[in-house]
Amino acid sequence: MASQSEAQETPGRRGLEERKQLIMEIYNSLRSADIASIEFEGPEIAVYIRNPKFIVENENVVKDLARKLRKRIVVRTHPKSRKSMEYTIKFIKENVPPDVGIVDIQFDDVLGEVRVIAEKPGKLMGRGKVFRNLVLAETGWRLEVYRKPLLQSGLLDSVLRHLQRHAEERRRALRDIGERIFRDTLIGTRHVRVVGLGSFGEVGRSAILVDTGESKVLLDAGLSPSGYGPDSYPYYWSPEFRVDELDAVVISHAHLDHVGTLPLLFKYGFRGPVYATPPTRDIMIIVLRDLINLMRKAQGEPPFEPRDVEKALTRLIPVNYNTVTDVAPDIKMTFINAGHILGSSMVHLHIGQGLYNILYTADFKFYRIKNDRSTRLLPPAEYSFQRVEALIMEATYGSKETQPRAEAEEELINLVNKVYKRGGKLLIPVMAVGRGQEILVVLNEALRSGKIPEIPIYVDGMVYEVTAVYTNYPELLVKPIRDRILKQGENPFEGPTTVYVTDHYKRDEAMYSDKPAIILSTSGMMNGGPIVEYFKYLADDPRNALAFVSYQAPGTLGRRLQSGEREIELEMDGGIRRIKVNMEIVSIEGFTGHSTRGELLSFLRRLNPKPRNIVLNHGEPSAIAALAHTVKTGWSKLGFESPPVIEAPENLEGVRLYPRNLKMKLALQHS
After folding, report:
1. Of 123, 395, 554, 649, which has the most beta carbons under 10 Å away?
2. Residue list for the binding site
């Protein structure tokens, strides 16, 4: 590890001089490429060449150069050297095997990509790089092949159309962001400090400001699940927070308590980059558009508009797992699988040329035992890193253990059978992302194996759209689910009795039919969405049941019902009506996508290397206190060689992670 004085970021070390050196090195290394221009586009250095055959013949040269410079270098054919889209489509169709089943061909002019969506993409993928290289050499377009989604999503298609429609704006945005990342440093990295703007001492509205003196990065921009008004926003009015000083926003995953106020930042002037994994990008746009509709129904005019969501999409830079990315002059960021929902990430920040490293877990799911079936869909969170000086870790279930997953599935199946026998309906509030897909897989597997009768499973809200995204990224799912999609062409999320509620006729059928049924609907905490309408009608019938399968935050309708309230006042027929709750209410906690208490401790035990500082957030005060006490008193059992410094700040409190004491800080300031 570098010494304190050596590690200190030197002002002016980056910027114009470094860019000149990088450009010179690239020109000298790629002389035969016929370089047209070199652009700093977001975190990447884009090399535009006139000779596309160079990319085909010198792939390893580019990779070696990127490793040498420790930069993300992408080589693209210059737009003027690419063949027309019409010619490229004709060339691809004439040269693909006849049974590939091309569904669509799309172009991304900014990235220089042609995307082929096919029913049998393996016919192209099986030919290795041969066909890709053929297309690139002949047309100048880089070929990407995708499988036709098992479920079609109009909202997902609209994301692609938006990116195509705003290609020039995206190009300008990337170059503007690149200039900011590779700017001259003013003072260098003077400290590492985190400020909780939300999710500290509470669950929801996650927002953490990381301040190095040189740069400011916001980790997540969430909304409290208890409501939609200003009290549900992070503390963006804190004197330490200004949108015009932000270098970047990093989104860990697409749940609203982590992304729900991102459009608000753009409404009030943020024009920097947003970083997220590709699935998070897709799901995020779906849930944010839905959020605007929910806000309109709940309170009239929402605090932001669809155009603010589109601004975020235009400036969003998708980053795959395990890809080191510059997000500020002195900060490199890496996404690591978190196992919580599709695309969810832990965020690793490498600060100041080896000065300090932070791991932000966000919401994550860890397995206590290898191959444990804690989730049907995703592999567990990673736990091995090169360096971690500070850990910011969730504590949602820090105070209690939840039931094993196998018991939870058995309890749900038994409940389905019980409700079916008495002729009732089972209402299951689910988040559109994560629990909805988990429950669908469990129910349809139980249906196929005969553990439950052939009962209609109605799926309402945004669950369908998000499930379509899940089928679009099978490579990120666990092997059994991935194989069913890729090898068998099956959709694990639906069965013969699945009914997608796409209009009010289907909703009326689900609600008013006298036959037993299962209804999955958003929102998971019952603070809006179709679930509330179902509840109003079904609540007074003792044959029916309501099953909670995820966390219910304080202040939500779900928590009130879970806590025992049996008379609820809700808006109905233009007025307020008192609803008597006679339906059975059950909580099944084993389906959680969060790490249980045992899994949190198991993660700390296996985490390598061990952090010096642990900052706990995303938990109710009792959960955070219980987890902090366990770590403080049992650190040696968790594999720590010395007691870690445990921090449990409240919102608006700052924690200085580096330097740890004032004398060191003063010495660095005068070094």
Report:
1. 395
2. 253, 255, 257-258, 340, 363, 618
Residues 6+ apart with CB under 8 A from 561: 526, 546, 548, 568, 581, 585
CATH H-level, domain 82-148: superfamily: K homology (KH) domain (3.30.300.20)
User: What is the rounded distance in angstroms from the CA atom of residue 245 to the CA atom of residue 216?
Assistant: 7
Which tokens sit at 11?
A: 């002002």
Reported as type and span, the H/E element at residue 654 is: strand 654-658
Task: Tell me which amino acid residue 136 is.
Answer: L
Q: Which two tokens stand for residue 6?
A: 């050596």
Which candidate, 322, 352, 318, places its Cα nearest to that of 334? 322
Helix (H) or strand (E) holding 104: strand 102-108
Mean pLDDT by 10 residues, the chain (671 residues): 41 66 91 92 94 88 90 93 96 88 90 90 69 92 88 80 88 93 80 96 96 96 88 94 97 97 97 97 94 85 93 96 95 97 98 94 85 79 97 95 90 98 97 94 96 96 92 93 89 94 93 95 90 94 96 89 92 82 94 93 97 97 97 97 96 92 44 39
pLDDT score at 126: 57
Please give the pLDDT value at position 482.
Answer: 92
Q: By C-alpha distance, which of 152, 256, 163 is closest to 469?
A: 152
How many whole angstroms separate alpha carbon 97 and alpha carbon 94? 9
Which CATH superfamily does the domain covering 185-400+594-664 fall into?
Ribonuclease Z/Hydroxyacylglutathione hydrolase-like (3.60.15.10)
Half-sphere exposure of 420 (CA within 13 A, CB side): 15
DSSP 116-172: EEES-THHHHTTTTHHHHHHHHHHSPEEEEEEPPSS--HHHHHHHHHHHHTHHHHHH
CB atoms within 10 A of CB 653: 13
- pTM comes to 0.91
The architecture CATH gives domain 405-591: 3-Layer(aba) Sandwich (3.40)
* Structure tokens belonging to residue 401: 């253990």
Rounded Cα–Cα distance for residues 645 and 663 (Å): 19
Instruction: Detail the residues annotated as belonging to a binding site for Zn(2+).
Output: 253, 255, 257-258, 340, 363, 618
* CA 167 to each of CA 170, 172, 277: distance values in angstroms, whole numbers, following the listed order: 5, 9, 20
Sheet holding 517-521, edge to edge: 498-500, 457-459, 517-521, 425-429, 545-548, 584-587
Q: What 3-state DSSP class applies to 401?
A: coil
Residues of the chain with CATH 3.40.50.10890: 405-591
- The predicted structure's pLDDT at residue 6: 38
**Which is it for the CA torsion 62, 272, 176, 24, positive or negative?**
negative
Peptide bond between residue 659 and the one before it cis (omega within 30 degrees of 0): yes
Burial 386-396 (b: 16+ CB within 10 A, else e): eebbbbbbbbb
CA angle, residues 169, 174, 176, in degrees to nearest 5: 95
- Residue 559: predicted pLDDT: 94
Give the model's pLDDT for residue 661. Answer: 59
